[in-house]
Amino acid sequence: MTTPPRSGSLSGEAEHDALSVRDLRVWYGTERGPVRAVDGVNFNLRPGEILGLVGESGCGKSTLGRGVLGLLPPGAKAAGEVRFRGENLVELSQKQMQSRRGPEIGLIFQEPMTRLNPLMRISQHFEETLRVHEPDISTAEAKHRALEALRGMGIPPTRYRNYPHEFSGGMRQRLMIALTLVLRPSFIVADEPTTALDVLVEAQIIRILHDLRRNFDTAMLLITHNLGIIAEACDRVAVMYAGHIVEEGKARQVFSSPAHPYTRELLRSTISLRTTGLHYIPGAPPDLVDAPSGCTFHPRCPDAMRVCPDQDPVEVYPTGNQRVSCWLHGPEDRIPEGGREPLARQEIDLADEA
Q1: Which of 210, 247, 243, 216 is nearest to 229 (CA)?
Q2: pTM for this prediction
Q3: How far apart are CA 282 and CA 98, in angstroms?
Q4: Which of 14, 124, 286, 331 could make an S-S bridge to 120, C-beta 3.0–4.6 Å?
């Protein structure tokens, strides 16, 4: 096992990344105190690479995506670095971010009907999108670009003047992707792009994601609960829990040899043709206003040790480029004497009550 330099340190390779995130933190102000929805996240994305972000609801996935895009609600704050084309997006004003969203950075929303105006034709959606970012574009060029994007999504030009309600759910999702691609961004955040779609449409969306990478060298952060989508569409996977990325590596490697107990339990909870019984992770993600001490997963972890509630885990690399934050993998010189003794369930329950 190797323990390379802290992942937050920038390397020479970062200059060639489509996106580089370092120590990103996002928190919300509440009457009970700050909610640390994203707490010290680090990752890189290369051009043409798809990184899948997975975890239970409430673990901070969508907040991370919106923090990268600068689309946080009032009362939320962000700090850290999101390096894109030499700029730290966290430091930019809303006006500056608006000019970069669309032509440089795209977002595919989860529910198309909440983003498509039912009173506007699809042609009007495309014309408005293009004119906001390219005011001098001609009507003929706007139509050409729109039809080109629709064609790439398998939507015929005869549907160009239809209204959103005249499309099926899967076609509306493809419309949203086309509206994102018409501005030709180099980086896209896709937030649950296949939610509520049947398996056939889901397969179409996966194929489109592959085409984006192959044809446009587009880098993508794909947020989803669906581990099958991650396995099919992503090069790497990052597993998020309680605002932290607890494991990250090549998708095939992480799925075949999960290093973190949370990743292992998520994989055991999926259903396949070989499933003979249902498995679930006891409990729920923690209250982030008053998160557990040490490793935030220890109250639910089947492998919890005495060191887990006492000290934050150290990020290590157990196998090659697979990084994990878990005391099961050391480093040994940071674990106190007796720290590897199993933590009894009764002790965990008492720690929660305290």
Answers
A1: 210
A2: 0.87
A3: 42
A4: 124
What DSSP character marks residue 306? T
Which amino acid type is present at position 154?
G
Secondary structure element (H or E) that encloses residue 139, with its range: helix 139-152
- CA 273 to chain CA centroid, Å, is 27
Domain boundaries, the chain: 14-104+185-260
Those residues whose C-beta lies under 8 Å from the C-beta of residue 259, and which sit 6 or more positions away, are 247, 249, 318, 319, 322, 324, 326, 328, 329
Q: Is the dihedral of CA 166, 170, 172, 178 positive or negative?
A: negative
The closest alpha carbon to 217, from 46, 29, 75, 351, belongs to 46
Q: Which fold has domain 14-104+185-260?
A: Rossmann fold (3.40.50)
User: Consecutive sets of 10 residues in the chain, 354 residues long: mean pLDDT of each?
Assistant: 42 68 94 91 94 93 93 91 94 90 86 82 95 91 93 90 91 88 90 77 80 84 90 93 96 94 93 78 90 94 95 91 94 91 66 48
CA distance 112 to 116: 6
Q: Which helix (H) or strand (E) holds 199?
A: helix 199-216
User: How remote is the C-alpha of 60 from its chain's centroid?
Assistant: 9
What the block records as the tokens of 301 is 């972890």
Q: Tell me the C-alpha distance between 180 and 190, whole Å.
A: 10
